[in-house]
Structure formats: structure tokens, C-alpha cells
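User: quick one, fold this
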Amino acid sequence: MDLKLTPVAMPTSIRPLSAGRAAGGAAVNAAEGGFAGALQGALRSVSSAQMESSRLQREVQMENPQVSLEETMVAIQKAQIGFQATLHVRNRMVQAYTDIMNMQV
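Assistant:
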């Protein structure tokens, strides 16, 4: 069974930064970098979403009229969902590692 994660199939919160390019080009980059490259791209995406939400929070607190509260709340929710997805992936990877280490050879 061959499972390929393309930017179209991935949740928007963990898509790699190359999602602006054509889907075929992003899939080629993920295939070249393998799992580690895809994971790094997803982590960068989650990190940038968190930084963006923090920036928007600061702007709202400073009463910047160009930043709306709705936009800020959406950015916060996107960052939170991305972080939760990353946490679930990490927990699954740790569980898989533990299962492999407990196998008898």
C-alpha cells in the first residue's frame, strides 16, 4: 500500500510552506525530502501560524485599526489546531518507536 501525502490531502494547518506552488511541484519536493522533509515543512508552517497569531494579538492589544478581532481569532484557532495536530503526530511517532523497541527479534 502506497500512501502519499500531497498538500491537497494534508490539513491546511500543517501544509508545507510550498503550498503556494502547484500541487505537483510540492509533491515532488516532499518526495525528494522524504518524511523528514515533509515533517520539517509542517513544523515550519505551524510555527509561522503561531508567530502570525501572536503578532495579530499584539496588534489588537495595541488597538491597531487595520487588524480586526475576527481575523485575530481565526489566526489563533488555526495556530491551535495546527499545534494539536503536531502534538498528535508526535505522540503517534513516540508510540510507534516504543512499539518497535518492545518487539522481540
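User: anything notable?
Assistant: The longest helix spans residues 23-61.
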